[in-house]
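worker-03 picked up job from queue 'complexes'. Input manifest follows; two sequence lines, order preserved.
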Amino acid sequence: MNSIVSSNIARFIVLILIQVIVLNNINFLGYINPYIYILFIILYPIKNNRLLFIFLSFLLGLTIDLFLDSGGVNAAACVSIAYIRPVILKFVFGIIYDHQTVKFNTIEFGQRITYFSIIVLIHHLILFSLEVFNTSQILLILKKTLFSSIFTIILCILITILFSRKNK
Amino acid sequence: MQQIINFLIRNKTFLLFLLLFSISLLLTFQSHSYHKSKFINSANFLTGGIYKSANNIKQYFGLKKENETLLEENNRLKSILYNAEKGNSKHSYLNKNTTNNYKLIPAQVYKNSYSSTNNYLTISKGEKDSIKQDLGVITSKGIIGIIDNTSKKFSRVLSILNTNSRINAQLKKTNHFGTLTWNTESTQLVQLIDIPKLAPVAIGDTIITGGRSTIFPKGIGIGEVVSFKLDETENYYSIDIKLFNDMTNIGHVYIIENLDAKEISILNQQDE
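worker-03 finished. Artifact:
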C-alpha cells in the first residue's frame, strides 16, 4: 500500500516538472504541445477514495496553471476527467471493471488505446475551449484539440510501455 | 434537516466536483480580464524559482546567439554615440531618453510562452528592483509587452501576443495612431486597428509606439506592414504587422520606467 502512495506522489511531482520544463517548450508547428501530466489521472489506482482523487486532480491542474499563467483551464479540465473517469472505465473495460480487478500493466493494447484516447480527447476539448473561450473560433479549438490529442496519446502510450514493469 | 444532510452525503462526490469546477472556471474568467489574475500567476516564489533554475541550464545553449545580439546592439549604440558627438542624435530613443526621463532596467526572460491565446513571460526582476505594474518591456529590436504582475523577485509580462493586450501605436511617417491587438493566428503577425482611412498606409511602412500612453516612449520599433484592408465599417484600416522581434526566441529584455508617469497621470486626472 505504501509503495502505491509513494509512487503516486513521485509521479505527481515528476510529471509536473517534465510538463513545465520540457514539454511546454516543444511548440511543434507553432502551437502543438503534448499534455502528458494527465497520465497521473489516467493511471491513478482504480480502488480509490473518489473525493481524494478529484481533489488531487484539481491540485494537479492548478499547479500546471500556476506555471503556465492560464487561469484555471487545466484545473477545470482535470477535475472533469477525474469525475467522469469511472464512466469511461466502465465503458471500456465492462465487466472486469465491475470486479475492480483492472490492472493497467496487464490490460490489452486495444483497450488501452481506447481508454487513453477518450480521456485525452475530453481533457483537451475542455482545456482548449476554455483557453480560447470564443465560439467564433471553434475551428481553432477543434484543430488544437485534434493535433495535440494525437501527440499526447502517442507519448502517453510510449511512456506507459517504457515504464511498465514486466509481469512474470 | 435530516434530508438535507442525507442529500449532501449521497451527492458528496458530485458536489465536490461542482465546487472545484466552479473555482477553476472563476479563475479562468478572471484571467481573461486584465490585471485581475492576482493569485494564479507564474511570478511567485515556487514557479519563479523553478523556472530560474531551468533557465540557468538552458542559457548555455543560447550563448552564441545571445552574444551576437549583444554585439549587434553594442555596434548600433556605438554608432549612435559617435554620430551624436558630431551633433545629430535624432534617431536614438535609447540615448535620448535615458538621460532625460526614462530609466532602463535590464532583465532576463525565465519563461516565454507563445502557443496559447493568452501569452505571458516571466522575467528575473521584481519589486525589490523597483519594478511596478504597468511598466513597458522592450528588447533592442522592439517591444515585448507590459508588466502585469510582480512578486518580490520576479514579475510577469503581458506579451503583445495576448488577446488582452492593447498598445498604442502609430505610423512612423505620419502621426495617425491606432491600437495594437493580436488575433492569435501567427506569432509573427500582430494587428493594428483603428487607423483612419485617410492615412497613407503602404506595404513595408514601419510601425512605432505612439507617445500617447505613459508606458512606452514614442518611437520604439514594433514592426512593418505586410498587408492592410478596410474593416467592416469601411472607415478604418486593419493592418497586419510583421514584428521586428522573434517572439519565440527572447533572452534579454529591458524594462522601461517613465519617471514622469506619475506627473502625467495626475495631470490627466485633473482633465477629466
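worker-03 released lock.
The first strand of chain B starts at residue 102 and ends at 112.
Chain B touches chain A at residues 12-14, 16-17, 20-21, 23-32, 37, 40-42, 44, 46-47, 50-51, 54, 111, 113-118, 120, 122, 156, 184, 186-187, 248 (CB under 8 Å).
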